[in-house]
Design a protein that fits this description.
This protein is of the alpha/beta class. The protein has 15 helices and 13 strands. The structure holds uridine-diphosphate-N-acetylglucosamine. Uridine-diphosphate-N-acetylglucosamine (UD1) binds next to helix 1, helix 5 and helix 10.
C-alpha cells in the first residue's frame, strides 16, 4: 500500500499530525502532499515545527485564489502526483478545498479514499465547507466519523463507503499532547476573552463584522476583561479594507502558534470564536466558548454545556458571553474521545 496524505491548511496540519505519526510508527509507506493553500509561516511552517512533522515531500504551491481556481489547480496537480507516485490510497481530513481536491482526484484514479472527520454537518449550504464535506463523504471509501452523531448523519445519507465506528476526533490527540494546562479554576483565569474570527460570512460584510466586534467588546467591558485577538490574515485585510476601527478593549495581534494558542485558550475566561477547531479545543481544555455563527457543525460541544451557539447579532453574542463566562471553572463530559483517534484510524487502514 502506498499512501498519500493530502493537506493544505492550518487545521489539517493539526488534525492529521497524529495520523501521520501513526503511519510513521507502523512503517506504512506514505508521503505528504501539501497544497500550500496556507503558505504564510504563521499558518503553515510554524505548525509543522510545533507538531514535530517533517516538511512535506511534495509542495504544490497553489496558494490563494477563488474557490474554483484554487480547487481546480489542486485537482490537476494532485492527480499528477497520485499517478506518478503510484499511490493507491489517499487520506484527507475535514472540509477544506484541499481536502475536496484530494478526494476527487484520488477517487477517479481509482484509489482508496479515507476521510478523517467524516459526517460533520451544519446544514447550511452557503458555507463552502458544507459543500466540500458532503462531496468528500460521498467520494470516500473509508469514513472515519469522530462521534456517534457524525456516524449517524453518514448512515442517514446512505454514503456508499464504509462507515467506521466513532474513533474520536484527532484534535484531542494534539491537544492532550501539547497543552501545558487544562481545567484551570475560575479564580486562576487570566481576565481576558480570547476571540478569533475568520469565516467569510462573518468578516466579508462590514456591517456584520463591526456588529460582532462591538458585541465582544461589550461583553469584555461588562465583565472587566481584555480581549486577546490573534487575527487571521483574511480578517486583518477586511478590517483595513472596510476602514473599521477596533473598539478600545480589543487588541489585534499576529496569529499564534499551536502551543501558545492552547495555553491562551486554557487560561481565558471565555473563548469567543467562529472557528470549529477552537470550539473543539476549548471544550477539551475546559474553557467555555461562545460560537459566533448561525449554525454549528459541532453540536456535541453545545450538548455537553461547553459552548453556547450565539448567532451573529449583538444581542445574542452579549447574552451568550455573560452566560458562558459564568460557566468558567465548571466541567463537562468530553464528547471527542480520549486522544488515541489517529492511532485507531491508522490501525484500521492497515488492517483493511
Ligand atoms: C480555510 C478553509 C476553512 C478553514 C480555514 C482555517 C476552505 C474553503 N476554507 O479558510 O475551512 O477553517 O482555512 O484557517 O478551504 N491568506 C493569507 N495567507 C495564507 C493563507 C490565506 O494571507 O497563508 C489569506 C488570503 O487573502 C486568502 C484568504 O486568507 O485569500 C483566505 O484563505 P483561504 O485558504 O482561501 O481560506 P480560509 O479563510 O483560510
Amino acid at each position: 500500500m502506498s499512501i498519500g496524505v493530502v493537506l493544505g491548511t492550518r487545521p489539517e496540519i493539526i488534525k492529521l499530525a497524529s495520523v501521520i505519526e501513526a503511519l510513521d510508527r507502523e512503517a506504512l509507506d506514505h508521503c505528504l502532499i501539501h497544497t500550500n493553500q496556507h503558505y504564510d509561516r504563521e499558518l503553515d511552517a510554524r505548525f509543522f515545527e510545533e507538531l514535530e512533522l517533517e516538511p512535506a515531500e511534495v509542495n504544490l504551491r497553489v496558494g490563494s485564489g477563488s474557490h474554483g481556481r484554487q480547487t481546480a489547480m489542486m485537482l490537476e496537480l494532485i492527480e499528477a502526483e497520485v499517478e506518478s507516485r503510484r499511490l493507491d490510497h489517499v487520506i484527507v481530513q475535514g472540509d477544506t478545498n484541499s481536502g475536496l481536491a484530494g478526494a476527487l482526484a484520488a477517487a477517479k484514479m481509482p484509489c482508496t479514499v479515507s476521510h478523517v472527520e467524516a459526517g460533520l454537518r451544519s446544514f447550511d449550504l452557503r458555507m463552502p465547507e458544507e459543500i466540500n464535506r458532503r462531496l468528500i463523504d460521498h467520494l470516500a471509501d473509508e469514513l472515519f466519523p469522530p462521534t456517534d452523531r457524525a456516524a449517524e448523519e453518514l448512515r442517514k445519507e446512505s454514503v456508499p463507503g464504509h462507515v467506521h465506528p466513532a474513533f474520536g476526533n484527532t484534535v484531542v490527540d494534539a491537544v492532550l499532547r501539547y497543552a501545558g494546562r487544562r481545567d484551570v479554576p475560575a479564580e486562576e483565569r487570566g481576565g481576558y476573552v480570547l476571540m478569533t474570527l475568520h469565516r467569510p460570512e462573518n468578516v466579508d460584510d462590514p456591517a456584520t463584522l463591526e456588529e460582532m466586534l462591538g458585541a465582544v467588546a461589550t461583553v469584555a467591558e461588562e465583565h472587566d476583561l481584555d480581549v486577546v485577538f490573534p487575527a487571521h490574515p483574511r480578517t486583518v485585510r477586511r478590517i483595513e479594507e472596510h476602514g473599521l476601527k477596533l473598539p478600545a478593549r480589543i487588541e489585534a495581534g499576529e496569529p499564534k502558534g499551536f502551543r501558545e494558542l492552547l495555553d491562551l485558550q486554557a487560561g481565558a475566561n471565555v473563548v469567543m470564536t467562529d472557528s470549529g477547531g477552537l470550539q473543539e479545543e476549548s471544550c477539551v481544555l475546559g474553557t467555555p466558548s461562545v460560537v459566533m455563527r448561525r449554525t454549528t457543525d459541532r453540536p456535541e460541544t453545545v450538548a455537553v454545556g461547553a459552548s453556547i451557539l450565539a448567532g451573529v447579532s449583538a444581542a445574542g453574542i452579549i447574552e451568550a458571553g455573560g452566560d458562558a463566562i459564568a460557566r468558567a471553572g465548571t466541567s463537562w463530559a468530553q464528547p471527542f474521545g480520549d486522544g488515541r483517534s489517529g492511532e485507531r484510524i491508522v490501525a484500521s487502514i492497515a488492517s483493511r
